[in-house]
Amino acid sequence: MKTAHTTAARPLNTYTKLMRAAESVTSRVNRSIAGFALTISQFGVLEALYHKGPLCQRDIAAKILKSTGNITLVIDNLEKRGLVQRVRVSEDRRYLMIYLTEAGRSLVAEAFARVESVICAELAALTAHEQELLGTLCKKLGLRGGETGQALEV
């Protein structure tokens, strides 16, 4: 008869491997943006704007999985550096859209190219098939929270 300990061993071991791999790759990716004097949250905001165009703070927060309060501070700091600009929507003065400035666009284009290169190099440890399988499994795992209303877009 299996005990609770042996039943839980495989999921716990798998979770540990998943988190260690994610932390290890994330650490190396984060180092690739260090020369740009950006935090990972700042890079996330810039990358979202670069690929999606102007967004409101709430949409940016949802896109990079951060709280709206945290995003306000991140955007404040990016705005001080002249990388983004807040623009009030004329129809609703309470609503702010965040735009990349030319300086922000230039910086994120260069930073993104470096991050993309590092990610490709990291994932080269897996075959194309393994990358597809890993992506499918991660999506399945992430969407599982939908059963409890806790799913995140993966």
Strand content: 5-15%
- The outline comes out as globular
Reading off the top of the CATH hierarchy, the class is best stated as: Mainly Alpha
Quaternary structure type: single chain
Number of domains: 1
The radius of gyration computed from the alpha-carbon positions, rounded to a whole number of angstroms, is 19 Å
Fourth CATH level, the homologous superfamily: Winged helix-like DNA-binding domain superfamily/Winged helix DNA-binding domain
**CATH fold name:** Arc Repressor Mutant, subunit A
Q: How many distinct helices?
A: 6
List the helices and strands in order: HHEHHEEHH
Structural class by SSE content? mainly alpha
Give the helix level as a range of percent: 55-70%
Indicate the CATH architecture.
Orthogonal Bundle
Question: Could you walk me through the main structural features you see in this protein, from its secondary elements to its overall organization?
Answer:
The protein is mainly alpha-helical and 154 residues long. The protein has a single domain, classed as Winged helix-like DNA-binding domain superfamily/Winged helix DNA-binding domain (Arc Repressor Mutant, subunit A, Orthogonal Bundle). The protein has helices at residues 4-33, 40-52, 57-64, 68-80, 102-123, 128-143, and strands at residues 55-56, 84-89, 92-100. Strands 1-3-2 form a 3-stranded antiparallel β-sheet.
Short précis:
With 154 residues, this protein is mainly α. Helices cover 66% and strands 11% of the residues.
